[in-house]
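thread: overnight batch results

M.L. [08:02]
morning all. the overnight job finished for the chain we discussed friday. pasting input first so we're all looking at the same thing
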Amino acid sequence: MQVKQFQSFYHEHFPDNMEILIDSFSIFGGWEWDLDVHQPLEHLIHDLILDNYGHLYNEISNILILEDPKYHRLLSALALGDRRIHSACKRAHISEEKGLQAIDFFRQNGILSIEHSRETPPKKDYPKQRFKREVERHRISHKIRFNTPFLRFWFYFIIPMHQEIERGEFEKVLENFKQHHASFSSFIFEELSLLLLEKTFKVEEIISIGSYWDRQIELDILAKTQKDTIIVGECKWTNTKINKSELGKLYDKCKTIGLKPDIITLFSKRGFSKELLSQRSERLRLFTADDFAVLLEENMSQ
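M.L. [08:03]
and the structure it wrote out:
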């Protein structure tokens, strides 16, 4: 995702706080809309998307050149699942060869981008060493990101319920949105957190940044600077404050893979407990939704 998409969305719709901006951007970002972001999201989804389903379906299908339904299934599997290529192909009931061809096509046309795994295969102490069954069967897999927030929303909430929409059963779609809204928006919050972290460390340049996953754990953020500073982070788009227990869970994840972070970063929609705020330091950096306003500065170039 480009930060210019985020900036453009703000300048087109001028939400009055960052929570509204991030929430509405996660749904409508990257597409042209005439919308009032201060209206309830369910109303906007109903009026702008569900009421115009046929038109949007044709428009998106023409842009993506989607004639085969299995590619709709693949994009929905990527939006709904863990974003790993092999698991998306399995979920979409498509061969990995065909899936990779489709993903490559969508990448070339700017629809998708790839996030390379930074997991390394386990090292053998001797040539014929055998690992445990779960280790042997584990596959290192890259992940896929949608470059446009709205297209991710479309394949997350709309295409999987196209039959209900065609029957006019909009309430089922909106109920599904209510149930999964927070987890859906949290991914965009994570992407924006990566951009904010890069902005924060502009003096000490970050040379690698992204999420991290392997057989045992997942980290929302793992970054390294030119000075070999290791930064890890967790992002929480929930209506409750982050407390000290979340910090403990993050330390446990790092310990599992033998990672010793120099800096911990926590990104929270609704802030932090008093106990956690009292521990804020150069080593523990805490960010709330309001801090994302820095991404709206015009000198951001990503």
